[in-house]
Amino acid sequence: MENIDRAVFDKIAAVSRDGSYAIIDGDEFADALPEGVRRAAGEIDGALKNLQKQGYIDLKYARGGTYCVAALKSKIAEPVEMPAPTKDESATIVEVKEKFNGFAAAMYAVAAFFGAAAGSAIVCAIFAAV
């Protein structure tokens, strides 16, 4: 998770400890961001949307740089690094080639031809009756 998302979540978790909603100004979020990070309102809005999408916060409203939010979780889960797959010499890849079934293809073609013919006959009968 990005540093911005983590800083925004930490600010929300600090203000709404018991899961209640808190009203936070955009400047408070900007002050909570780490040094060297761009402190634009768009960055904060993006972080809030990411956190809401991932289920960490609930955003009741966001108007004019003021946000009403609640922390749904107590902390952000640390990413788990998967170990690199080891090359197993005993594992072999077996390719399976399927045979082309010409009889089945011919039957599909015949069925399609007769279906189209039957449909055309029905349309012709309707136009002849009208």
What can you tell me about this protein's structure?
With 130 residues, the protein is α+β, with helices and mostly antiparallel strands. Helix content is 47%, strand content 13%. The protein has four helices and three strands. The chain has helices at 3-15, 26-32, 41-53, 102-129; strands at residues 22-25, 57-63, 66-71. It has a three-stranded antiparallel β-sheet with strand order 1-3-2. Strand 2 (57-63) and strand 3 (66-71) form a beta hairpin. It is elongated. The N and C termini lie far apart (68 Å). The mean pLDDT is 82.
Mean pLDDT: 82
Low-confidence stretches: none
Estimated structural class: alpha+beta
How many angstroms separate the termini? 68 Å
Count of helical stretches = 4
Helix percentage: 40-55%
Largest sheet: 3 strands, antiparallel
Sketch the topology as an H/E string, one letter per element: HEHHEEH
- The main sheet orders its strands as 1-3-2
Question: Got a strand count?
Answer: 3
- Rounded to the nearest angstrom, the radius of gyration is 31 Å
The amount of beta strand, in percent, is: 5-15%
Described by the principal axes of the CA atoms, the overall outline is elongated
How are the SSEs ordered, and which strands pair?
Layout (H helix, E strand, L loop, with lengths): L2 H13 L6 E4 H7 L8 H13 L3 E7 L2 E6 L30 H28 L1
Antiparallel strand pairs: 1-3, 2-3
Helix pairs in contact: 1-3
Write a compact overview of the structure shown:
The protein is 47% helix and 13% strand.
Which descriptors apply to this entry?
single chain; 130 residues; alpha+beta; three-stranded antiparallel sheet; 3 strands
